[in-house]
Specification:
Blueprint: H1 2-19, H2 41-54, H3 68-79, H4 82-98, H5 108-119, H6 124-142, H7 145-151
Helix pairs in contact: 3-6, 4-6
Length: 179
């Protein structure tokens, strides 16, 4: 009977030892789970603020509502090489250092000025980082549900049953330039 308990306890102990390295006991919790990138909460909130600055919310939902910041992280994690991932994280950290770790606390006007001036900065890592974030954010937003249903309504079959060869163009009508 002791042998069974000993084997059971040994099995539980071995399972615990195998699972222990995957446990993260840090206080900072990240909202997105990535496979290759190791980011912290500060980096995640900084990227969220940058995306919010590039596509702000006003009358329409912005980049945060479309979850463009999560798309940027997922794209960088899944679709770029390890060298490009290192360059992206290096650009993010250099941008954070350039803004004295206070980009998140600034108001929208100050953040816009910082981002605009950083696009023409001498530091190529920051320029490449911001160009990547801007391109991926715009790509995500223009493929979001809100954009394709409200901003540029998409019809599965354009002109089905209502095709007119001559039509006056109403300048106030929303059109889908992608159709």
């Amino acid at each position: 009977m002791n042998r069974r308990n000993a084997l059971k306890n040994l099995g539980l102990f071995t399972g615990g030892v195998l699972l222990f390295p995957s446990c993260d006991f840090s206080d900072e919790k990240v909202g997105i789970i990535l496979n290759k990138l190791k980011i912290n909460a500060k980096q995640e909130s900084l990227l969220t603020s940058i995306v919010d600055t590039i596509i702000p919310e006003d009358k329409t939902p912005g980049g945060i509502s479309a979850k463009c910041h999560n798309f940027v992280w997922a794209y960088i994690d899944d679709c770029t090489s390890p060298e490009d991932q290192k360059k992206f994280i290096a650009g993010l950290n250099e941008f954070n250092t350039k803004t004295n770790n206070s980009f998140d606390q600034k108001n929208m006007e100050e953040r816009t000025k910082i981002v605009d001036s950083s696009f023409s900065d001498d530091n190529k890592n920051i320029q490449n980082f911001l160009n990547s974030v801007k391109g991926l954010s715009v790509w995500c937003y223009t493929n979001s549900e809100h954009f394709l249903t409200v901003e540029m309504p998409y019809k599965l079959v354009p002109g089905a049953g209502t095709y007119n060869t001559c039509k006056t163009i109403d300048p106030n009508q929303k059109i889908n330039s992608n159709a």
